[in-house]
């Protein structure tokens, strides 16, 4: 990636992050960059949005709900 392309990519991510903050999505820069990359590779943006929404609905896994590892 040349310097111009890298600068354009950073500016684009900055803009998307700013829009994300205005819309109060709660997505961080890293998550947004991953979602953008997935879209650029042909994944459906609406399907990605549905996955993000579904993941947010699920309660986080607590350490007490994970199976205990066997003792050596």
TrEMBL record:
Keyword Transferase: no
Species of the source: Kalanchoe fedtschenkoi
Cellular-component GO terms for this entry: gamma-tubulin ring complex; interphase microtubule organizing center; spindle
Superkingdom of source: Eukaryota
Location(s), subcellular: Cytoplasm, Cytoskeleton, Microtubule organizing center
Keyword Cell wall biogenesis/degradation listed: no
Name of the protein in question: Mitotic-spindle organizing protein 1
InterPro entries per the UniProt record, alphabetical: MZT1
Family: Belongs to the MOZART1 family.
Keywords: Cytoplasm, Cytoskeleton
GO biological process: gamma-tubulin complex localization; microtubule nucleation by interphase microtubule organizing center; mitotic spindle assembly
Primary subcellular site in the record, as a coarse category: cytoplasm
């Amino acid at each position: 990636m040349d310097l111009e392309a890298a600068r354009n990519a950073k500016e684009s991510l900055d803009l998307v992050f700013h829009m994300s903050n205005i819309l109060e999505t709660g997505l961080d820069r890293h998550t947004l960059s991953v979602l953008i990359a997935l879209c650029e590779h042909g994944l459906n943006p609406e399907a990605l949005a549905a996955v993000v929404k579904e993941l947010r609905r699920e309660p986080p896994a607590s350490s007490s709900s994970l199976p205990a590892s066997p003792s050596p």
